[in-house]
């Protein structure tokens, strides 16, 4: 069976950047599953698989289609139970939803505000029009207005990762001694910022930086290969 | 075997208030274990069990002593594996540490600043002197100065619970369909505020309020009995 992951990229398809797609890339490597990644422009998502999904990641495993990063992770866990677990049991499956809540509502809004101009700059022209209109509407400011508060958000980001920093005193990964999907959730957010803006705004001495670097190295450096 | 939980109270020993002790109270009920709670004043902690611990909760199970709420939960899970799990497996055990990180670094600092004056008011005189000195040093302000920003912190609290609110769209508890120790971690923080300040600063329509109320009802209303 062939696994295809539809993901997201700008004009340069060698640099897929979506945080949600990165979660799935890491999850597929974690399960040791071979896959082909097909990065799409924003405006290309509705054109594949007969418009099955309005968003990526979209996974095609044989004839089976699944969208949404968390649902894909649950699908992989259920379909490939003999391979390394992404959740470490039912409790981990449930609590990964809390980590998702944290990443989506605390980290993503700030990264969006840092990176929105950089994302716009890397898109192909047709995507740029869609992206500017939808993001300016969602955020209530023009891309140019958002640029003025960018540096303040960069400064804020390390502080928002304090819960992770506090946890790292006890264990090296959110998954415990080894990473689980919950790690890939927060990794996806920082990887998105790294690819789009070239920023890892955490000092070398920060344990969160060490955690992120070790995830960049994981799975033969799958994350580090894209910059 | 008799289980004793040393916890924390003010002049009125019928109102133990420590967030960390509440986590353990809920964990003991979760495991269906009978126990005797012995609330101590701050300055009484070092006087029991030959000064085994400088902090509560301190659990005595037969001859075995364990301190620290998370370590106690791990001890209960290991010692009573045939009773309902507090973690739902190894992944849940690890991710509960992330929930702890969130509660300790995002929720506790704000509740401390809201409740510090109320805690001082409910303590016996010997504890008051210790509490005022240690808290004013830690927070860098007098109790009277802290009172001036109290209302602003009350207003901030609902927003800080956004990750939990986001998660509740998918499931009723951090533990999934039923609560686990990770739920009791965040519950402990809000129960602390409820007992000490009489506040549950979340509107009735807030899903986090619904989650908290259901935890107050749990285990025959163990949490609701203290107000």
TrEMBL record, chains A, B:
InterPro entries: Glutathione-S-Trfase_C_sf (IPR036282), Glutathione_S-Trfase_N (IPR004045), GST_UstS-like_C (IPR054416), Thioredoxin-like_sf (IPR036249). Residues 8-84 form the GST N-terminal domain. Pfam families: GST_C_7, GST_N_3. This is Glutathione S-transferase. PROSITE patterns: GST_NTER. Gene3D superfamilies: 1.20.1050.10, Glutaredoxin. It comes from Rhizobium paknamense.
